[in-house]
Design a protein that fits this description.
Elements (H helix, E strand, L loop, with lengths): L1 E3 L16 H5 L2 H23 L1 E3 L6 E3 L5 H27 L6 H34 L9 H37 L1 E4 L59
Antiparallel strand pairs: 1-4, 2-3
Helix pairs in contact: 2-3, 2-5, 3-4, 4-5
Length: 245
Amino acid sequence: MAETGGASAYGAALAGGGFDFYKFVRQPQTIVRLLSWVFGLVVFACITTEGYVNSPTSPEAKCIFNQRDSACQYAVGVGVIAFLACIGFLMLDVYVPFMSNAQDRKYTVMADLGFSGVWTFLWFVCFCLLASQWARTHDVRAIPEDAARATIAFSFFSIATWGILTYFALGRFRRGVDDVSIPTYTEPPADLHTPYPPTYAPTSYNPTTYTPTTYIYPNNESQKQPPFTSSLPPQDDSSYLPPKY
């Protein structure tokens, strides 16, 4: 089994670490994402509140950008989705460091990278479309010009913020790939030619042959020894001599 650096790849937090709100808010990625959220809010709010006016010759409300309703609808759609996406990715930014699975973190970073890149392009299209239609608008009577200019300006700002988010996501993805590719522990391969593991090699065992010993007991009673015979001579009391002083 091989352990790799995936345990800390794609922005994983240290084990036992808690969520630090002030550190999270001060991160560059969080600041740029909040700016993208505000810019998207400004774009679709300006159009939904002041983006449609009645022309002098028609009672029907038309888009302020050369009376092209498709331009206003496109800007509102891009702005609303960007607004909601920023909220979702902010929540993921909080949750991703505490994901235990490196693959889940990888897919989240890839989703952030792909969405940010696509929305950078869509904001660029939105800016070009609004700027082109505003340049073709000649009758500006009863048109809130400040709202039109603010919509165009914040569409341009959104290109920059979403481009920066794409750059941040790409950096996290590259660092995650580098962390996963660096192994931290590799188990040695097993030797298929030995029947036992490398750490245990039993010695050969040769069994010892046991040969029983046969005892022969004699049948002649005369050869038997008495159970106990004293070899000491009898002692007489007359042989005792008192000590001389």
